[in-house]
Amino acid sequence: NFIAKLDDSKIDSRILFKDRLITLSENTGKEVGELSISIDSSTYSGKECYLIQANSNGIVDTIPVGTNITAYVTPKLESLEHTQHEYVNIPGNPLTKRSVLTQTEEGYQLVLTKTEGGSETVTTEDFTNDEMSRFISEGANLVLQRLSIVFGVHSRMSFKVFSTENTLTSVTYSPIESNTVSIQNVTLETIGIERCVDNGQDEQPTTWKIYFLSDGHMYTRAQVGSPVYMKIKNIPENFIKDDDADWVFPDFGKGVLHWEDDIEMLSQFLDRKEELKEDHVNYMKRHPELKAILGDFLQFLLMRKPSDVIEFAADFFSSYSATAEMKPSFAHSNFVNKSAIRSD
To answer: How far apart are CA 76 and CA 49, in angstroms?
Structure first.
């Protein structure tokens, strides 16, 4: 009933924003990764649709893991194309899995590529439209969650998803008790959703408990039994608080920035450091005369050992200028260190 009420020709602008959450260890509380989710309006083969991009990466039990999703989804949550890449970087035996789901005239085609160590396997499977009825991809799942919050849907919903083995199974969305939270000294209400994927009779279902702010921004997400959970760090800049146009962010003053503890900022710093290092090395390769000039300068400096290094440097490098006034070389360093002169 919920999907039937959606307008297939209209993108809901209320859910077009980006979420960024940090990943925290349940045991230590330390930051071990991050999750970013963005939903934008786009077109796919002439159709208006949502473009979903999600990226999760971090360290679990000392192993780097991550998932990247790019999906095109219609306003009625029909997946037009869905690409998902997962990796687990086990030392000596890295694992990757890439799935591409594409809509066809008869239904859908799924191409799955698995890589373990040095071996790769590729499988292709087709699904009919009937089999994929009420199917929700991982990308469409993110749209569904935001829409259910902004529409105020508080009833149980059931759909189909792919299991970890890429077989169709059922997934349910159920409302759970809301919580009051404090973010940056601001008290806010959160709305809870429980997402439960059926893994068959012999296994426990995979369950997530997800809480949202009232405008659809994700506040926290946790998979039951996982050693990590995800949570927002600050109130989103474009947060709308219960349609209160007069509500503004409080001024918390300027805090101390511990950028070394922020994975994203540290990563940007290291990337920029390597970029500058490479740029400097390439410049020196293009100008070999630079090494010769600096070598001559240091040799004269150590031989003369002037008391005023700045004046000595000015005298030395002025000799390279075509417009500099002619004067005795090294006027500020006439003293010769006799110990530097070898007698024959």
So the answer is: 9
